[in-house]
Structures are given as structure tokens and as C-alpha cells.
Specification:
InterPro entries: TPR-like_helical_dom_sf (IPR011990). The protein contains 21 helices and 2 strands.
């Protein structure tokens, strides 16, 4: 499961390398050489267009079209790396690992210093279970990259972590994290600069009074420009969101390694990035997912305006903590606020969670709850699983986690937690 999720997180969207075989221009005739040069540029332009079309076909799942386009591209440039990188992705998508391995090896043969080729080769070998070869290939990917890439460092860190090389894995994760933070900072600066600019949206005719040198006051017509602040392109904001998600993923992986190494103080500093910076209750949520229900409950209760501002997932964690601690006074003190907040939100996740918790915790009986609605309860399953684990019944938690992971209802941090709990790491 971990390997498949890592592969899903680490797709590189574009095979950017364009290593071209040198052309024979030794005819001695300048005009003929020039003619060949123009022809080569036109052919490569067509080749690159074919590669981009093939990538889109792979991403859309149209494998027959992808094969057809790649075969045409390969006839144009039989010794160029781009097509074979896409072939590797295509065969991996079809779970044809032997063919994927051949394509990746050929990509390395024609471009031995292509970082992407080594990265693809590493992924194939990892899926085959050849972890030593996968690690060596991942190291070559970081060695040959023309500019630092957080994807390659993240992938290498994951392989090192699986091999028990925690200190080396933590170093690679920290490098990936540093690059992502830098990319996000630069992108954020670019968005702010763009949105600080004003553009003219229209003109308005007006009049104003002007005092002449002799003291005479006259009225004259003026044209005023109507302006408004620009919006940064939507693609920039989408990229910012994707980078934030990747930073959360990398930070979470690094956090797990640091915890395993016993470096809790450093691990704690990563929590805001794991939650994407949008969660006020990061410390309490961390205690909750580590099973420190009493400490988490105290932190939640100490948060000013908790019930008004808590996200649904945070409120779900609060419910589980309340049930696990099980103090009648605590429940009585908050049950009115809690019941009102749950009712106001109309959250299927919270309703589903309450429905199950009330069966196990009699003190919650005064809070109304109804059965949740179908596919929207994946996150509730994770919180309920944590409740069972806290009670000492992991056998009840496992089916819930497996069901949650197989559905589409999870997102963000719940998915990370469910993955860790399901794999027992």
C-alpha cells in the first residue's frame, strides 16, 4: 500500500529532457548543411508535439492511442530518450513491469545522464522488489539532475526509509522540504506582485475647478481612469495549492522518520506544515493521532472559540477524545454546545461518528445522532478506528481503515493517518 501511494504521489507530469542525437553535417556544403539544419528543427518540433500528445493519452487512460503516437515518434527519433520515458509510464500504468523495465533501461542507454530516466528505472525496480537497485538508481537520479528536484529527493528518502536508513532518509526529506518551501515562497511572492498591479478598466469624464494665475476660477473637463487590481492567473493559484499538498506529504514522511529516531522536538515543528498551515489546533490534533486523548482534549478545550472555528475533522477528533476520556462532568459541560454545533453543520461524517460512538459510550446518549450517508463517511471511519484502537480492539479498526482507504471519501491528513494505521507503521 505504501509503495502504491508513493508512486501515486511521485508522478512527474512531463518528461522534460530533449537530448538529441547529433546530426551528420560533414558534407562540406554550407547550403546543404543549412537545409539539413532546418529539416532537423522541423522534425524535432513534430517529435516533441507527438510526445506531448502521447503523455496526454497516458494521463487520460487511452493506452491504444498512446502506443500509436509513440510508435510514430520513435520512427522520427529512434534514439531519443523522451519517447522511452513515456513508454515506461505507459507500461507501468498497464502493470506491464517487464516491458516497463526494458523501456527504462533503453532510456538510460540512450541518455545515461538523464535524471528522469534513472528515476523511472528506480520506480520500476522498486515495484519489482529490487530495493538495492532501486536505491542506486534513485541516487543516480539526484546525481544527474540539472537543477535540484524535490521529487527525486522525496523518492530517494522513501526508499532509504524502507531500508531502515533513517538518518539518510531524514536528510533527503529535509532537502525536499526545503526546496518546496522555497518554491512556495517564490510563487507566493510572484502572486502578490502580480495582484498588486492595477489595470485600466475604463474611463470616466468629469469636471474640476481650476484657479488661473490671475485668480479667475474656471471649470474644465477632465478624463479620469478607472482602475482595479489584477488577478494572478488561476494556474498560479492551482500550482500553489498542489505545492502546499506536496509539502504536507513530505513533512509527514519526515515527521515519521524523526519520531522513529526519537527526535520529537524537531518532529513537533513540522506539524503546521503537515496540516497545511490552515489548522489552529495542530498540537492537539497531533496528540490525538498519537493516542494521547486526555492531553488532546485539554488542548482543544483551551482553544478560544473552538466550537465556532473548528473544522469538521477537528470536531470529529474532539468527539473521540471526549468518548475516550469518558468523564461525565466534561461531557455534561460541553454537550449542549457540541450538539448545537453538530446539528448546525449537517456533516454526514460527524453524524456517522456520533451514531457509532453513542453505542459504546452511554454518557453521549443525550446528544442527537442519525446514521450518516453512504460514501461520505470515509473520514468518520478513520476516527472510529482510532476510537477502537484506543479501546484496545485493533481487530475492529482494521476493516474500517481498509474500507476508508478503498473509497474516495478521504482527503488530506486523514488519508495519511489511515495509511499509517493500516500498514501498522
Amino acid at each position: 500500500m505504501r509503495a502504491l501511494i508513493l508512486v501515486g504521489l511521485l508522478w512527474i507530469q512531463s518528461a522534460a529532457a530533449t537530448e538529441v542525437v547529433e546530426k551528420n553535417a560533414s558534407l562540406g556544403n554550407v547550403q546543404i548543411e543549412e537545409l539539413h539544419s532546418v529539416h532537423d528543427r522541423e522534425e524535432m518540433s513534430k517529435y516533441e508535439r507527438l510526445c506531448r500528445s502521447a503523455e496526454k493519452a497516458v494521463e487520460s487512460g487511452d493506452h491504444a492511442k498512446a502506443f500509436r503516437i509513440l510508435n510514430e515518434a520513435r520512427q522520427l527519433e529512434p534514439r531519443s530518450v523522451d519517447a522511452y520515458l513515456i513508454y515506461t509510464r505507459l507500461h507501468l500504468a498497464r502493470e506491464e513491469y517487464s516491458s516497463a523495465e526494458k523501456a527504462a533501461k533503453f532510456a538510460i542507454e540512450v541518455a545515461p545522464m538523464s535524471a528522469i530516466a534513472w528515476y523511472q528505472h528506480s520506480r520500476v525496480q522498486y515495484l519489482k522488489g529490487e530495493f538495492g537497485i532501486a536505491q542506486e538508481a534513485a541516487q543516480n537520479a539526484t546525481k544527474y539532475m540539472t537543477k535540484p528536484s524535490w521529487e527525486f529527493y522525496h523518492w530517494l528518502g522513501a526508499i532509504l526509509q524502507d531500508g531502515g536508513k533513517l538518518a539518510a532518509a531524514e536528510l533527503r526529506y529535509s532537502q525536499a522540504q526545503e526546496m518546496l518551501e522555497s518554491d512556495l515562497k517564490n510563487l507566493g511572492t510572484g502572486i502578490r506582485i502580480e495582484e498588486s498591479k492595477q489595470i485600466v478598466t475604463g474611463m470616466d469624464r468629469d469636471t474640476e475647478l481650476v484657479t488661473l494665475s490671475g485668480g479667475e476660477v474656471v471649470e474644465r473637463e477632465v478624463i479620469r481612469l478607472e482602475k482595479e487590481y489584477k488577478e494572478a492567473p488561476e494556474q498560479w493559484h492551482q500550482m500553489e495549492s498542489r505545492l502546499s499538498e506536496r509539502l504536507s506529504d513530505v513533512s509527514f514522511d519526515r515527521y515519521r522518520v524523526l519520531v522513529e529516531m526519537g527526535q520529537m522536538e524537531t518532529a513537533q515543528k513540522l506539524v503546521p506544515m503537515i496540516f497545511g498551515g490552515g489548522e489552529r489546533n495542530t498540537s492537539a490534533m497531533l496528540k490525538y493521532f498519537e493516542g494521547e486523548f486526555s492531553g488532546a482534549l485539554k488542548s482543544f478545550n483551551a482553544t478560544k472559540g473552538f466550537f465556532d472555528e473548528a473544522e469538521d475533522s477537528t470536531l470529529a477528533a474532539y468527539l473521540v477524545c471526549l468518548a475516550m476520556v469518558g468523564e461525565s462532568k466534561s461531557i455534561e459541560r460541553v454537550q449542549k454546545k457540541l450538539s448545537r454545533e453538530v446539528s448546525k453543520r449537517e456533516s454526514p461524517m460527524l453524524q456517522e461518528l456520533l451514531f457509532h460512538l453513542k453505542k459504546a459510550v452511554p454518557n453521549l446518549k443525550s446528544i442527537k445522532a442519525s446514521r450518516g450517508r453512504g460514501d461520505e463517511t470515509g473520514a468518520a471511519s478513520v476516527h472510529l478506528a482510532l476510537f477502537h484502537i484506543g479501546q484496545g480492539y485493533p481487530e475492529l479498526a482494521q476493516p474500517l481503515l481498509e474500507a476508508a482507504l478503498s473509497g474516495d471519501a478521504l482527503s488530506g491528513f486523514e488519508l495519511k493517518v489511515a495509511t499509517v494505521l493500516a500498514t501498522g507503521t
